[in-house]
Amino acid sequence: MSIEIQNIDGKSSGKKVTLNKDIFAVEPNDHAIYLDVKWYLARRRQGTSKAKERAEVIGSTRKIKKQKGTGTARAGSIKSPLFKGGGTVFAPSPRDYDFKLNKKLKKVARKSALTYKAQKNEIIVLEDFVMKETKTKEFKIILEKLGIDSGKSLFLLPEKNEAIYISSRNIKGARVATADSISSYDVMNANMLVVTESALKTIDTYLA
């Protein structure tokens, strides 16, 4: 599949690039994408919610009333969940939601996600560009010229570029990442995938 390379003005550069069929034209595996997205979202969860159970609540262990003859149920401890200030029943505790996912499966998932983007013509290949200054306005103009300012977009760069990253982070729906850190979630969540020429080579190496 050949795609015309555009410049940051949204015009054709006169060059074309052929997408690697082993990455952008595979048989999509929906279950692999599901597992990769689940893994990605699980790693983002903090898992820091915590409440005290009755064993962790500070309080006396003496009987708070006579056990018999009161006409009510026995009550052995002020720390019981039945009383105000007592422990919580089945209280949440800090946990790690991460789980192991095979590297080969991750590659299958990301190739499948990229294939879906290629099938829907939701990939723009861009000439390598540099932003010398950090200006949100300039990055917004680039989005407008490419015609992707109204939806979600994912820009893939060959390496970290602080100026481009900072210029994009205040624009709703725009995300910038390096080509070797792509996830199925980011690819599928974007309406348009924008890949620079050098980033395309990085993807070929990363997912080969």
Description:
The chain starts with a strand and ends with a helix. The chain has helices at 21-24, 30-44, 103-119, 136-146, 162-168, 184-189, 197-206; strands spanning 2-6, 12-18, 123-126, 153-157, 174-178, 192-196. The protein has 2 domains: 2-45 and 100-206, Ribosomal Protein L4, Chain: A (3-Layer(aba) Sandwich), CATH 3.40.1370; 47-96, no CATH class. The longest helix has 17 residues, at 103-119. With 208 residues, it is of the alpha/beta class. α4 packs across α5 (162-168). The protein contains 7 helices and 6 strands. β1 (2-6) and β2 form a beta hairpin. Strands 2-1-3-6-4-5 form a 6-stranded mixed sheet.
Give me the secondary-structure topology.
Elements: E1 2-6, E2 12-18, H1 21-24, H2 30-44, H3 103-119, E3 123-126, H4 136-146, E4 153-157, H5 162-168, E5 174-178, H6 184-189, E6 192-196, H7 197-206
Parallel strand pairs: 1-3, 3-6, 4-5, 4-6
Antiparallel strand pairs: 1-2
